[in-house]
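Hi there,

I know you've been waiting on this one. I reran it after we fixed the sequence typo, so this is the corrected version. Both the input and the resulting structure follow.
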Amino acid sequence: MATRSEPLIVVDADACPVKREIVQVARTLAVEVLMIASFDHRLEAEPGVRVVQVDRSDQSVDLYIANHVGKGDIVITQDFGLAVVVLAKGATALSPRGQEYDERNIDFLMERRHELAKRRRSGGKTRGPKAMTDEDRYRFQQKLTKVLLHRQEIGEP
């Protein structure tokens, strides 16, 4: 995506648990949303929300986002690897729980992911993520709103 005067919210939508919350915040602040999902997930376009469906291969959604995200966009993803790519392109990356990925925390998160993957490959057990709570959803909405309002205040894309 080319640099725009207005940010675009780009969603790694396959397993995103806060799609409804993203649309609510985007509508309130008049920001366009682009949801990317594989054909295995049925999403419907609606006013202010574009949907792009890609093939079901392992990295198709991530590759589409990496190739189309632009400076100033806000990407919602649980994937640390994708977060690294979008940060390098000048975009903001948020988790569905409202954590902002940035240069202060992304190296630690990537290292932790690598260590847990090594443990699983060697037969060790790891825990999955905790179930989303209403508090998590609220925290996410607050963080997304804060990021968007800050950009509008300073006139940054």
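Quick highlight: The mean pLDDT is 86.

Best,
R. S.
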